[in-house]
Structure formats: C-alpha cells, structure tokens
Q: What sequence folds into this?
C-alpha cells in the first residue's frame, strides 16, 4: 500500500437483478443510488423519448411507431430491474457530474494511461459490474463475487482486453470520482455489511473484516445526559471511548428507537371533490404496480391524504412517493397541505419499498 492510512473498500453484493445499481454504487464507493432513483430516471428518459416521437413522427401520439413504443413499455428498465446504459450514464452525470465514455471512444485514452484511470463500468448483455482504484490498487467489485478481488496494475490492461474480447463493453471514469473511504465518518455513506478492510483484502485473509462486525454501527444521534445536543456520532473508535461516552451512545440509540415519528400518523382518505369544485386540484399518479390514475383532491388536504389514496389502490406494502423534476421523496411533506407543497397538477410516481 502507498501509505499508512487505513482504507475500506465498498462492495455491494447482488440483489435480484439490480447489478446496474450495484455497479454504480461500487464505482462511487457509497450507497448513492437506489432502485427507486434509477427507476425515476428511466421513467424520465422514457417520457423524453415519447415526447420526441410525438413531436417528430407523422401522426404524433396516434402514429404507429408511437403506439408501438407505448405497447412495448419502458425501454430503459425491465420488470426484473435491469437498467439501460442511458440510465446509468444519466445517474452518474446528474449526481456526480461525471462522464462515462466507452474506453474505445476516440480521444479517451490518448492522454491518459489506463492505469491512471480511476474506475470502470463493464457490461455484457444484462450484467453490469464496476472496477475501482482505491489507494493505488484496482479492485474487481463485481456484485456476484463473494468479496472484492485485487487486479494488479500489470494485469489491468490485459484484463480489459480480455473482457472486451469476451463481448463486454467497457466504460471509464478518468478522474474526479468521490474519494475512497479512509475514516469512520465516510463509512456512513454505505451499508455496513459491504465495507471491507483493505489490509485484510490485500493480505488475503479468509476472515476479512467488514464493518458489520462493529456492534455500534447502528447507533444514531440523540441528546446528551447534560441536556446538550450531541453531534450525532462519536468519531473516536469504540476501543478509545470512555465508559461515559459508551453510555451516551447506548442511550442515544435507545431514545432514537423509542421516539415517535409524525410520518407514522394514519391519514384517512377524504371524499373526492366534484369536477370544478372550489379549491379542487387534480393529481396524476403512476402507481407502484405500473398502472396510472388521476384523482381530484382539495388543496387544503394534507399530503398524507395522497398516501392514503395510493394505499387504497395497492397491496399492504410500504410505499414511497416522488414528485417534481428531478423526482424527490415527498414523505417529509405529509403534514403540509397539497397547496403548500405545490403538488397540484403534478405527476406522482410510487414504488414499493
């Protein structure tokens, strides 16, 4: 290793067919993208494509090509959660302002050696995985692997050639990726079970440590015993904390678990206003099961009533609702009115969580 600083490697494992999500998160070394956020981008891209076809195809929304595109469903995500390259590229650009060119694109490798590039995304058919440089060492972070695998600088170019010969497309990020994790605070950006201690990986330990081994990983913020507001976490390693500091952390965790949440309040579905009624607003929905709906509400209704409406249309699963552009979670607005939240006329997207 190039220095004595302790690094951790983030490696999300495969869940369902969400390898595109895991490839991005492993590339940026944090849990930055969720299935819902990528699905929202896919929906935006689908709508942009439909809008373009409506404006440029003869016959507009009644044209054969437009209707065929509607019948085919999304071109950017399938029912299994496989996302298109455009979704991954757009997600990386919108959140981190990073380009994702093909490594064979003209001009990409003219000024930078492959061993100076910070990361790669590889794709063949419906599988995606990431490769990332951390502390001057490259790691294969394929989500189907049990643990990150080291790729030496000497073998990197040959590995990329072998992947491309096997039918993979290789995309690269030359520089400016988020820095790798080298502190306890940075580990909060990822899920604890996916952090691997770099020195264990480099030494080939079979029992390499993950952050999930830390019994204090779930401790949250709270108020101190002396009445002052805590910072939300103690940056000291647990082994260096005093008995008082450990007690403060335990009490904070207990209070956080017991604290009631306003978002847990149950809202009743109000009667739908008649067409043209004073103060009535219309909202469109794309429900978690993919169906669409339109309903009128009173502008004075709480946003929580919107959740009650969606719940009445869906199974008894937890739901997340997003609105705006780019779509944002509206759960924090449940206590506000629909008018105050400027949701009149909006398209609200729902998904199961």
A:
């Amino acid at each position: 290793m190039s220095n004595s600083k302790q690094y951790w490697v983030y490696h999300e494992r495969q869940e369902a067919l969400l390898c595109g999500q895991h490839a991005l998160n492993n590339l940026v070394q944090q849990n930055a993208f969720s299935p819902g956020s990528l699905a929202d981008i896919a929906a935006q891209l689908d709508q942009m494509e439909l809008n373009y076809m409506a404006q440029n195809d003869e016959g507009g929304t009644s044209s054969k090509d437009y209707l065929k595109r509607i019948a085919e469903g999304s071109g950017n995500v399938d029912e299994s959660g496989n996302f298109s390259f455009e979704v991954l590229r757009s997600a990386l650009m919108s959140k981190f302002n990073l380009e994702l060119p093909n490594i064979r694109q003209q001009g990409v490798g003219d000024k930078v050696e492959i061993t100076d590039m910070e990361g790669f995304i590889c794709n063949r058919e419906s599988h995606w995985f990431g490769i990332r440089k951390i502390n001057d060492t490259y790691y294969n972070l394929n989500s189907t692997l049990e643990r990150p695998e080291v790729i030496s600088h000497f073998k990197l170019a040959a590995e990329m050639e072998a992947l491309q010969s096997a039918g993979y497309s290789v995309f690269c990020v030359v520089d400016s990726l988020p820095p790798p994790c080298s502190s306890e605070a940075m580990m909060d950006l990822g899920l604890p079970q996916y952090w691997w201690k770099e020195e264990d990986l480099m030494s080939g330990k079979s029992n390499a440590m993950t952050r999930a081994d830390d019994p204090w990983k779930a401790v949250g913020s709270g108020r101190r015993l002396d009445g002052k507001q805590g910072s939300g976490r103690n940056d000291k390693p647990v082994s260096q904390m005093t008995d008082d500091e450990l007690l403060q952390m335990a009490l904070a965790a207990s209070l956080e678990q017991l604290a009631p949440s306003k978002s847990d309040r149950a809202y009743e579905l109000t009667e739908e206003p008649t067409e043209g009624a004073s103060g009535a607003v219309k909202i469109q929905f794309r429900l978690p099961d993919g169906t669409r709906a339109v309903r009128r509400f009173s502008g004075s209704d709480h946003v929580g009533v919107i959740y009650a409406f969606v719940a009445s249309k869906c199974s008894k699963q937890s739901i997340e609702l997003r609105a705006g552009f780019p779509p944002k979670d509206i759960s924090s607005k449940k206590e506000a009115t629909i008018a105050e939240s400027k949701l009149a006329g909006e398209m609200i997207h729902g998904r199961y969580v």
